[in-house]
Amino acid sequence: MYPREEVKALSSIIIMTVFGVSGLHVLAVPEYPVTITDSIRITAICRDLKLGKPLQYILGETSFYNCTIKVNPDVLIPRPETEELVDLIIKENKDFRGTILDVGTGSGCIAVALAVNLPGAKVTGIDNTEDAVRISSENAKLNKASASFLTTDIFNPDLRQIGSAGMIVSNPPYVRESEKSGMASNVLDNEPHSALFVPDSDPLLYYRAIIKMAESILTPGGKIYFEINEAMGKPVAEILNSAGYANVTIIKDINGKDRFLKGTRLRPDPEYLGRDCSG
C-alpha cells in the first residue's frame, strides 16, 4: 500500500511519537523497552494506516517549520511546499514589524510559524469555518505564538474586524476538479474537499477575492504572497499586475514547479475596486 521509503518515514514518525526517541536510537539500543500500552498503540496506528487514514490525523498532530500543529479532518494536513512558502517569507522579511494577514488559515500553520519566527509582526489568520479558527487558536497557544484568528467569509469579509495589513499571505484552494484523478485516495477520502478544490470553470476565484480584499486593507508598499497551482502561475500574476502590483514574481518550489507568487502593492486601482470577484 505504501512505498518502501514512505514506510520508513512513517515508521520514524511513529517511533518518535510513541517513544519520544528517534528510530536510530531504537536501532542502537535494541533492548529499548516496549510496554503493552506502547504495543497496543502502535497496533492501532498501523490498523488505521491500513484503512488509508493519514498518519497526521491518526496522531492528531504534525510538525511544520519546527512547530507542532494539531490537525483533524476539519483542516488540511500542512504540506512541505507550504513550509517552503513560510521559509521564503521569513527570509525576505526578517525585520518586518507590521501586521500579517493569513487568508484561509485552516490549521493556522502558516500564521503560527510566522508569528514564532517574526516576533516583531502582528499575525492574524482568517477562515470561513469556526472549526478551523478553533484549531488554529489551539495551535497558537500550543506553540506560544502571538497570533489571533477570526471567522469571516473570504468572499464577503468583515473588513472593519480584519483591519489593515502590511502583508497578506494565502494558500487558498487551488486544485482543479479535473485534477482529482491524479490524487492519492487517502487525501480524497479524508481531507476536506472545500479546502482543496476549485471548479475548472473558475479556478482563480479565491485569488480574485483575496486581491479584491487587499485593495481595501493592504497598505501601499505592502506585500502579498500566494501558494499556487503549478499550472496557474501566469493567470494569477496577470491578476496582480492588473490590480496595480509591482515586482510580481513566480517562484519555483524545490521540485522545480511554479508554486509561489509574490508582489508589492503600489497604488489603489479604482477600476479594479468596482469589479465583481464572485465569479
Concise summary:
The chain is of the alpha/beta class and 279 residues long.
Protein described:
The chain is α/β, with parallel strands linked by helices and 279 residues long. The protein has two domains: 4-51; 72-273, Vaccinia Virus protein VP39 (Rossmann fold), CATH 3.40.50.150. It is built from twelve helices and eleven strands. A hairpin with a 2-residue loop joins strand 1 and strand 2. The chain starts with a helix and ends in a 6-residue tail after the last helix.
CATH 4th-level superfamily of the largest domain? Vaccinia Virus protein VP39
Q: What's the arrangement of strands in the largest beta sheet?
A: 5-4-3-6-9-11-10
Task: Describe the largest sheet.
Answer: 7 strands, mixed
Question: What is the annotated CATH architecture of the largest domain?
Answer: 3-Layer(aba) Sandwich
Assigned CATH class of the largest domain = Alpha Beta
CATH topology of the largest domain: Rossmann fold
User: SSE string, helix = H, strand = E?
Assistant: HHHHEEHEHEHEHEEHEHEHEEH
Task: Write down the overall mean pLDDT.
Answer: 91
Work out the number of β strands.
11
Radius of gyration: 20 Å
- What structural class do you assign from the helix and strand content? alpha/beta
Low-confidence stretches: none
The proportion of strand residues reads 15-25%
Q: Could you tell me how far the N terminus lies from the C terminus, measured between alpha carbons in angstroms?
A: 40 Å
Q: What oligomeric state do the depicted chains represent?
A: single chain
> How many H/I helical runs?
12
Approximate shape: globular
Helix amount, in percent? 40-55%
Number of domains: 2
